Amino acid sequence: MKQPDERTLVLEAQNGSRVAFEQLVRRYDQSVLRLALNLVRSAEDAKDIYQEAFLRVYRNLGRFRFECSFYTWIYRIVTNACLDHLRRKSTRKEETVARTTGGDGDAADVFDQLRETRTEADPERDLMRRQLAFGINQALSELSPRERMVFELRHYHGLRLRLIGEMFGTSEETIKNCLFRTHQKLRVKLRDWI
Amino acid sequence: MDCQRAQMLMVLHIYGELAEEDRPAFEQHLGSCANCTAALEVERKLRGLMDERGTREPSPELLARCRMGLEESLDFDGPLSLWERARQSIGWVNPLGVHPALSAALLLLFGVLLGWMLTTKLGEKPGAGGTPVFEQAGTIPDDFQISGIHSIATDPVTGGVAVSYDAARRVTLTGMPEDAAIQRVLLFAVRNYENSGVRLESVEALRRQADDVLIRRALISAMLNDKNPGVRLRALDGLKKYPKDPEVRQALLQALAKDSNPGVRVECINAFTEFPDSEVIAVLRVLAQKDKNNYVRMKSAAALEQAWATDKP
């Protein structure tokens, strides 16, 4: 059966269809969750961002006027939810950056680390890899929330700077300056590795 | 082109974002400046280094949990009312912006009305006749009586709380969740209030204070007894940081075994992931075989497997 196009789904969701809204969520939620998980490196926090972002989308759907793509609009909301989360974290000074391995969650990290120490053939190399990952996460966590977001979206998610500017509601030039500043900071913080 | 400009452009260059009109001057500068050529090499190395971190893909299990949580929140949120949808759909029309003269006239009228209301109400005692009053938490006497809760709102940035309740008059109390007066209203709301939205907001404010044993007990009571799964989940969220507290542990175990909502059962499994003991394992065994929800069965089986794997030498 042919999938309804996005505009139809948005209009149906705006008229109160939960089914249409859930279909829209499923189009984007995996990449939203990936962004959140890579930003905060904790499954529970990523889940909170996911929840908050899509609830905001749901509550504000009636305000979407097709003036930009739905993708840009939804990511603008997600970006704001992520920024709010990062700001709250930096306010509470609870940022922990010790997560260095794969897996989703806080507990999963512990188990993944256990598995790796059992299977890793070259402990010295493994140690270096962990130190580097720690250093990178530390350097990223010291960026401002905005710099952190811009870098994550450009470097790890491959979004064009112009699109990032649209998501932030600012000019491409501002985002270019932000990326440049971020590189300067990272270059200083990671100079021992370069 | 100077070196400062070139160094900014080289960041764009390594991301493939250098504008075509900047390219000739940029390349010409690089050809004649050894410092900038070396700096470009450093930028490339930095980019390669940052790639080392890689990206993490969310597992299907996490995605499923997120979707389930969202569905429950949407159930709790309920559909947007017709009024809200209508308000949003006309929200972009700003009649005041379209007719500046009309807007000026309306503002003037509003000012006159406001002035009249203020002058006629000036003689009244604040708070009398149902007029809301605003108080700071520290200014409230210890023996104040609550007859009903109007609303509770938590500021996500500062953590501050504003609770509106009716006593002899309606009072809006602002302060931090650790203020005794605020806590008293919140605890009252969690235990007694009919409106699940108010209970949810109360639990949300209280869960940040769960280091206090009395508040933990209130959260335990909400997690085990509240009829709304959203409230139970929020209370659980506040409690799962204390899996070693015997009271919390017992309550989580009870919720794991008996809660009617699969989302709550899944969150209980997650809460026990790091500290599964024989009691937890026994409940997980039953759930893995008999739970009526597929996802809970799968999740219990995975938790059991994980527990066994960590037991191995």
Structure description:
The complex is a heterodimer of chains A (194) and B (313). By secondary structure, chain A is mainly alpha-helical. Chain A has helices spanning 6-14, 18-40, 43-60, 70-92, 106-119, 123-141, 145-156, 161-168, 172-189. With 313 residues, chain B is α+β, with helices and mostly antiparallel strands. Chain B is 63% helix and 7% strand. Chain B contains 15 helices and 4 strands. Chain B has helices at residues 3-14, 23-32, 34-53, 60-77, 82-89, 95-98, 100-121, 180-192, 196-206, 213-225, 229-239, 246-258, 262-272, 278-290, 294-311, and strands at residues 133-136, 148-154, 161-166, 170-175. In chain B, α8 (180-192) packs across α9 (196-206) and α9 packs parallel to α11. The longest helix of chain B is centred in the middle third of the chain and has 22 residues, at 100-121.
Structural class of chain A: mainly alpha
Query: What is the CA–CA distance across the termini of chain B?
Result: 64 Å
Helical region count of chain A? 9
Spatial order of the strands forming the largest sheet of chain B: 1-4-3-2
The H-and-E topology of chain B, N to C, reads as HHHHHHHEEEEHHHHHHHH
Question: What is the molecular shape of chain B?
Answer: flat
Q: What is the chain-wise order of helices and strands of chain A?
A: HHHHHHHHH
Tell me the number of strands of chain A. 0
Question: Over the alpha carbons, how many angstroms does the gyration radius of chain A reach?
Answer: 19 Å
**Assembly status:** heterodimer
Structural class by helix and strand composition of chain B:
alpha+beta
Query: Biggest β-sheet of chain A, characterized?
Result: none
Largest interface, with counts of residues having CB < 8 Å to the other chain, equals: A-B, 62 and 49 residues
Residues in helix, % of chain A: over 70%
Task: Report the uncertain regions of chain A.
Answer: 94-120
Shape of chain A: elongated
